[in-house]
Every structure is written in C-alpha cells, then in structure tokens.
C-alpha cells in the first residue's frame, strides 16, 4: 500500500473516529502536549522574542520529530502505518467536540437559559461572556465554529496531506502553542510572538481552503464569495478573516463588531454587513456547514495528494 493510500484511508478512519467518539475527557494527547509545553515555558520564559522563538522551536519541532520517528518505525508495515495515521488524525482534529460545545450553548439559548449559555461559552472561546447578551453569545459561537473548522479540522488535513503524520502533529502543535502563548497579554507580547507568527503561516492554506469550501457547501455561495472579497482583509487575523467572512456570507448573517477578550474591548469590522443579526438557530446551521466543509476537505486533500504524486511521477519520467 502506497503512502497516498495510507493517508487517504488513515485520515478517513481518523475523522470517523472523531465523529463516533469525539475527544476523551481525560488524557487527550493535545492536553498532554499542553502540559509538556507549559513545562518548557517555565524553563525558558523570558520577556524576549528570541527566547519565545526557542520555545516554539523546541515544542513544535519536538512534535514534528516525534511524528517523523514514529512514521519511520512503522513504514515497513502498511497496516501499522495506516493505524498510526488514523490515530494521529483522530488526536489532532476536534470537529466533534467543537460541534458538541456549540450545540450545548445553542440548546441553552433555545431554552432561554442565557446564564447557562454564558457558563458554557469559555469552553468554546475566550470571549468575556458576562459582556454578551443572547444574540452576542450566538454570534460568538458562530464565529468560533467558523474559525475552528479551519484550525481544528481543515488545516490539519492540509498538512497531513503535505507531510503525513509529522504534518498532522506539527500543525496541531503550532495551533496549540498559539492558543497558549500567542495572545497579546503583557506576559506573551514578546515571548509568544514567534508562536503567533508561525501559526499565521501554518494556518494560511487551511483557512483559504475552508473559505472556498464554505462557499461551495453553504446555502448562499455568491454571498460567501462577496463577503470574503469585501470584508476578509479588514479582519485583524489574516486567517480568521477569510473563514469568518465566508461563513457569514454563506449563512446570510453579520459577524464581527465589538467584542471583549480578557477585559480588553476590540472593535472589529463587520463581516457581511448586508446580512441579519445572528440568532441561536444559526448555531446549528453553522455546525452543519462546518461538518460539510470538513467532509469536503478530506476529499480535496486526498485528491490533491494523489494528483501531486502523479504530477511528480510524470515529471521524473519525462
């Protein structure tokens, strides 16, 4: 069995495992990586970009090296290679947990339990829930579903197609580092700079693919394309902008605007200004769109890997 088929079958099995079982409540590999990263941070932290870059290199490089060693060990056995790819895919994607948390908040809002929704929101994103009403919570959830479709599923599949198991683990490591130290707090403004910039680079292809697939899979493809062209560049994040704008246009809603993170108020541009305000019903619509995008991403990345292999083979023969 060739490497292309190993990725195709392994990634499909890993996504199926995530769909059926989701994330374990204890001992998740990403949580273990987070603990290890925290230990490295305690040893290396200085209010300096160089030390932050070293921290990023040690943690992300360690994840890539671990994946490369494991993949090399099992390469002689196709079944073991497939199993490793499936396990790595399951470990790094988080579509089911994303959907579960979003729907939990949606059910609370549907029942009129705004306080319950506020209590659940920190499980999904870093917004200040006390500053949000019901519609604001719904908007935050839809934005998080859009962004995390790229971060938690599509980006991982893209790098898995490019570099196999090392790509899968490396992408999740970079994304986790950004979540831990990449924000603009006084402690991490310098130390987390390298992690944030590397996450921007690693997330670039997955975000663009997610935006395209949201237009293809959404109920309003033209609206998705229009919103992305008009508004994505105004978003402060180079990767969240295209994804959130495309989701907003596809769903016919307005995203962006004023929000609060850790006591810090940000006034972000409105995405898809012709759309209506987000309601709690849009959470389920966003989750369904996320699922469709994830399925299409698997097909596109598998097809892209096979196509790249064919082109390289023809190039060697010519």
Automatic annotation (TrEMBL):
In the bilayer, the protein is annotated as:
Multi-pass membrane protein
Main localization is membrane
Give UniProt keywords alphabetically: Cell membrane, Cobalamin biosynthesis, Membrane, Transmembrane, Transmembrane helix
| Family matches, as InterPro entries | Cobalamin_biosynth_CobD/CbiB
Q: In which pathway does it act?
A: Cofactor biosynthesis; adenosylcobalamin biosynthesis
Location relative to the cell: Cell membrane
Q: What does this protein do?
A: Converts cobyric acid to cobinamide by the addition of aminopropanol on the F carboxylic group.
Q: Which family does it belong to?
A: Belongs to the CobD/CbiB family.
Q: What is this protein called?
A: Cobalamin biosynthesis protein CobD
Source organism (scientific name): Streptomyces macrolidinus
């Amino acid at each position: 069995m060739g490497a292309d088929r190993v990725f195709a079958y392994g990634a499909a099995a890993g996504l199926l495992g995530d769909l059926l079982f989701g994330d374990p409540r204890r001992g998740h590999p990403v949580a273990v990586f987070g603990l290890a990263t925290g230990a490295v941070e305690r040893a290396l932290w200085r209010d300096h970009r160089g030390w932050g870059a070293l921290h990023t290199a040690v943690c992300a490089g360690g994840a890539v090296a671990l994946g490369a060693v494991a993949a090399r060990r099992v390469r002689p056995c196709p079944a073991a290679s497939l199993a490793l790819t499936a396990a790595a895919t399951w470990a790094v994607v988080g579509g089911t947990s994303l959907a579960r948390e979003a729907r939990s908040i949606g059910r609370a809002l549907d029942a009129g339990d705004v306080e319950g929704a506020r209590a659940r929101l920190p499980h999904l994103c870093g917004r200040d829930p006390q500053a949000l009403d019901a519609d604001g919570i719904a908007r935050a959830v839809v934005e998080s579903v859009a962004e995390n479709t790229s971060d938690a599923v599509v980006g991982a599949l893209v790098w898995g197609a490019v570099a196999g198991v090392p790509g899968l683990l490396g992408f999740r490591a970079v994304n986790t580092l950004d979540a831990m130290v990449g924000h603009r707090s006084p402690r991490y403004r310098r130390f987390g700079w390298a992690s944030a910039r590397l996450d921007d680079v690693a997330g670039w292809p997955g975000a663009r693919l997610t935006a395209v697939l949201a237009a293809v899979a959404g109920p309003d493809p033209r609206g998705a394309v229009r919103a992305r062209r008009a508004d994505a560049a105004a978003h402060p994040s180079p990767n969240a902008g295209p994804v959130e704008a495309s989701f907003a246009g596809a769903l016919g809603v307005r995203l962006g605007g004023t929000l609060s993170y850790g006591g810090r108020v940000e006034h972000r541009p409105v995405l898809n200004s012709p759309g209506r305000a987000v309601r709690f019903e849009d959470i389920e619509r966003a989750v369904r769109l996320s699922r469709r995008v994830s399925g299409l991403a698997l097909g596109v990345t598998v097809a892209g890997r096979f196509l790249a292999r064919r082109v390289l083979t023809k190039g060697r023969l010519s």
